[in-house]
């Protein structure tokens, strides 16, 4: 992936943004790039909920996006992930799924265990594991109900007990 500017930027952005695939592929350059540089934070309206969600863009992702946006392939394009298929302005969710499948296979993981939603879940699962902060995860994912976040992460009684064991009064 290191030699593929688009794939590296797409991978980094998928993990950082925590966006659903349909929202990730429809990002526009202006959503993440202004005044000659990649923004540290961005927001977009989620297609599923029609509600805004904000996300950070880490330094590593900003660097990969910067390289991708300045690539000659990108000159004058509106969408961050343009399609190579005529008549389609940006990658489709199906094309994105095939790209993710390629990444999964290339690192020797079981393809049936990973997909585009794995990219959305990666960072929030780590945040929850390190902090136990469900509310933060809920906000980052743009969930309106805590129940959705609990189900999404697969939080169970073992997680609650582990957190409880870490607190000594």
From TrEMBL:
SUPFAM superfamilies: DNA breaking-rejoining enzymes. GO terms for molecular function: DNA binding. It comes from the Bacteria. The keyword Repeat does not apply. Keywords: DNA recombination. Gene3D superfamilies: Intergrase catalytic core (1.10.443.10). Pfam families: Phage_integrase. GO terms for biological process: DNA integration; DNA recombination. InterPro entries: DNA_brk_join_enz, Integrase-like_cat_sf, Integrase_catalytic. Residues 1-165 form the Tyr recombinase domain. Transmembrane segments: none annotated. This is Integrase. It comes from Paracoccus siganidrum.
